[in-house]
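Quick start: read one record
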Amino acid sequence: MEFFDVINNRCSVRTFTSESVEDDKLQKILETANRAPSAGNLQAYEIFVVTDPSKRDLLAKAALNQEFIASASVVLVFCSHPARSEWRYGERGVQMYALQDATIACTLAMLSASAQGLASVWVGAFEDDSVSRVIGASDGVLPVAILPIGYADEVPVNRSRREINDIVHWT
């Protein structure tokens, strides 16, 4: 798929088929996320791959009972790892750069999934501590986004976007 087609066709999907994501597609998603730009190339993030159905169920509960998470064949949890950035950038690395690193990686993973004919949805509403327990995150590794991935069992309509003139400000 061409880049701009990926951007224009990507949409949030919350209903997945039972078909599993192929290992090579998942590997490509992870490799793409690993290519994400990051502050100082420190890659101050971690990615947890959740395929176990019982853990996906627990993630759905931790995400305020968003049950569609459990129906995706794979769920990626992107976490910031502020200590990886702090030594170079201090508090700004902790508060901002690690968070940015994780979100950029998640965005590239989402686009990689879409480019391969897969569906996903960015989930940001969850209980941090519960998600950390489910994935076994170390202290100091903080969940930022949950990305369920699978084959779409719906054809959502692309939602309208704000007009460019509403979001772009020339100075």
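Residues 83-115 form the longest helix (33 residues).
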